[in-house]
Design goal:
Length: about 475
């Protein structure tokens, strides 16, 4: 045990030097530094020297989980949804084939992204960031003289937990064991049982539900959980002089968790919180908001009558369905009279800018949104500029986290010397904390989540006849303070 500890300490010192040296560059000298670090640890010597064979098609038997709904009791009184294990034999061409030297020549990482659905623009941002990271990593591997190349296989989860599980099962059957994503906490919660049971590693760039902060599982998250974001939201609301808040939130793992955490944070500051409105994301997806805007207007009117419009705020915790909510809320004058507050689910949301009525409502209500802040460095500026060049808009921080995840996963796989989720799981926190990426230093806590972060504050503005997002302030977690620019 002592010998292992000493090796890891040597690795951490050497690895930091390598990372500092190659934050941008892909030079041969930097690549050589990476090889030296690997030799110090002594776990990937064989992998560096021996190229892996080509992939071979094969028939595999895999264990999958199916969701089953049963009605029991008299006259179907109770409906129970459970997950059962089934063994299925499938003929597939394995994407990942273990090489004789311990590593495949092609390292394949899965990515579960919402390319359609209520977070489609976030999914696109992450996809572009991942593609850039793959280019950078492969250039580094080539410059290093290493025989490996990286490929990320992307599947669209449609921002739906059940679809995300199906896609994970399909990719696992092809031999993929290590994944970026999924994007939402509802998806992560639905995949967690399957991932843990089958030892599949999931590294989410944006799942923030506090309930998923569980030590020693197969889930890592390169973002903080919402115990910090909730304090940021509450502090912004307090600084605006709001005394009464009416929340309306998405009824899923993420929305429920953030709503509760923010209510607790607001009440701790002496701000009164209405019971609010919890809506079904599935119902809203099918038919849009129906009774909710009118009910919200009634609640806000009652609060305005008691406290005055300047002391009342609306907290909305949602994804892209906020566009429909804003369009319908614009018909109620009282909802325009009060300030609105959002979250990381709507910060930098491109869908909001594309609907003029919704965008104007955001401006009229000074709609402000926090999202965890990346460290602003030369590295950050470079990656952001390259993503913007492709998508034409400011990327969210979670896309930058996805970029960092590619680097950390590949370097951890090389350090492990095998395409093995358990080995990568053990080493990943060490590699992460010695990594300065596009988001800055990646320090994970005991639950495998980013330990802390500040939060940037974003508002919609109109300039030259076009709507865009503007960074207007920052919440500093260490001091629990808000600075508006």
């Amino acid at each position: 045990m002592l010998q292992t500890t000493l090796k890891l300490n040597k690795y951490e010192r050497g690895y930091k030097e390598m990372k500092d040296g190659r934050i941008y560059g892909l030079s041969t000298a930097v690549a050589a530094a990476g090889i030296v670090v690997a030799l110090i640890l002594g776990v990937v010597i064989g992998a560096f020297a021996i190229p892996g064979p080509a992939a071979v098609p094969e028939v595999v038997t895999t264990t999958v989980f199916q969701t089953v709904t049963k009605t029991v009791g008299e006259e179907g009184a109770v409906t129970i949804t459970t997950t059962v294990r089934e063994t299925v034999t499938q003929t597939v061409e394995r994407t990942v084939t273990q090489a004789a030297g311990g590593l495949p020549d092609e390292i394949v990482i899965g990515a579960l992204l919402p390319l359609t659905g209520s977070l489609a623009s976030y999914g696109e941002n992450s996809r572009v960031a991942i593609e850039l990271a793959v280019q950078d990593v492969n250039a580094w591997l080539e410059a290093s003289g290493l025989p490996y190349r990286v490929r990320v296989e992307v599947e669209d989860t449609e921002t739906k937990p059940d679809v995300a599980l199906q896609k994970l099962q399909t990719m696992a059957a092809k031999g993929i064991k290590i994944f970026i994503g999924p994007q939402t906490s509802a998806e992560v919660r639905n995949l967690k049982g399957f991932a843990d049971s089958n030892k599949l590693l999931l590294v989410s760039q944006s799942s923030t539900a506090p309930e998923l902060a569980i030590p020693d599982d197969f889930i890592f998250r390169f973002c903080p959980d919402d115990t910090i974001q909730s304090k940021a939201i509450a502090k912004v609301i307090q600084q605006d002089g709001i005394k009464y808040v009416v929340p309306i939130w998405r009824g899923d793992a993420w929305g429920d968790g953030l709503d509760k955490a923010t209510k607790d944070a607001l009440e701790a500051l002496g701000i009164e919180v209405d019971e609010g409105i919890r809506y079904s994301p599935e119902d809203v997806e099918r038919k849009g908001f129906t009774a909710e805007p009118s009910l919200l207007a009634d609640k806000v009117q009652a609060a305005v009558d008691q406290y005055g419009a300047d002391a009342v705020g609306v907290l909305v915790i949602s994804f892209a369905e906020i566009v429909d909510l804003f369009v319908k809320a614009a018909d109620f004058e009282v909802l325009r009279q009060v300030r609105w507050y959002g979250s990381d689910g709507t910060a930098l949301l491109d869908e909001l800018l594309r609907e003029p009525v919704a965008a104007q409502f955001a401006i009229d209500t000074a709609f402000i949104n926090p999202i965890f802040a990346a460290t602003r460095s030369e590295k950050f500026e470079d990656v952001v500029a390259r993503i913007k060049a492709q998508i034409g808009r400011e990327p969210d921080t979670y896309a930058l986290a996805a970029y960092d995840e590619v680097w950390v996963l590949v370097e951890t796989i090389l350090m492990a010397g095998a395409y093995d989720a358990e080995a990568v799981k053990s080493l990943l926190p060490i590699v992460a904390r010695n990594t300065f990426g596009a988001t800055g230093w990646i320090i994970l806590n005991e639950a495998g989540d980013r330990a802390t972060a500040d939060y940037d504050l974003w508002r919609v503005v109109q300039e030259g006849g076009e709507f865009r997002w503007e960074r207007v302030g920052v919440y500093v977690a260490a001091g629990d303070t808000v600075n508006i620019f």
